[in-house]
Amino acid sequence: MAGTVWELNTPVVLLIFNRPETTRQVFAAIRAARPRFLLVVADGPRPQKQGEVERCREARAIIESVDWDCQVLTNYSTENLGCMRRVSSGLDWVFQEVDEAIILEDDCLPHPSFFRFCSELLEHYRDEPQIAQICGANFQFKRCELPYSYYFSRYNHIWGWASWKRAWESHDNIMTDWPDFRNSRLLEKILSGRKETTYWTDVLDRVYAGEIDTWDCRWTFSCWKNRMLSVIPSVNLISNIGFGPGATHTPVANRYASMETGPIDFPLCHPSVIEVDFEADDYTGNTMFRRPSVMDRIINRFRRNI
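^ thats the sequence. predicted structure below, dont judge the formating
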């Protein structure tokens, strides 16, 4: 109805750690959206890192400035669990509390329309088991015009996303089935070409072996194993403002740092069928996962820290 004020009734999750500067900016975007339900997950400081106790405390204090009608739940770790254990255990807790949620990390700054985009599509695909999540990031760099508001992808970008309890329940954080899945060559049927298959086999082998302390690749494997797809918006709705020396996974700025965002139009225009946009996914595969990329920098970062 014209003139109706849209309200954000979908729960929002904020994942924080030791960066009050970026946390403050992301929190301001959440505050502008005024969700009725906010869940905050925080990792604990590393004792050997000078000043981290104070930075963690400062990041958590930002949450205390909620000044709108909002129920706030917190899940704060007293010890440092690391990226993989803290995010996965935090999301386990989230989906014990709510059936669906919009999820932001402390360096993923959303465009205002991101919240409505996620909220509407969470409802639209609530009972569609083929869809794992709604993404906020678009890495096509305006290379093509889409006839719809979004497309379907095999990639589940997690720089601002939304999902359901029913999808997260399929997540196997231990990657129990990875050896059999790898040996069965099923990855070749999901990805496009030998180079990308080789790339992801190497990454997932290292994640499975514990050489890379990250949760998102484990979630990606769970989605692929269960043949689930993700929704990608036709415009980029997330700007990652966390690139730099203090970042765990993105210490060096590149083309993905602080990407431009733009509004998505409403009402949304939905695709008529659920199928992968292979042209868009091939571009993503060629630019992100077949040559030195964000993921390669993650691997190299952890190699230096082992």
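The chain has one domain: 12-305.
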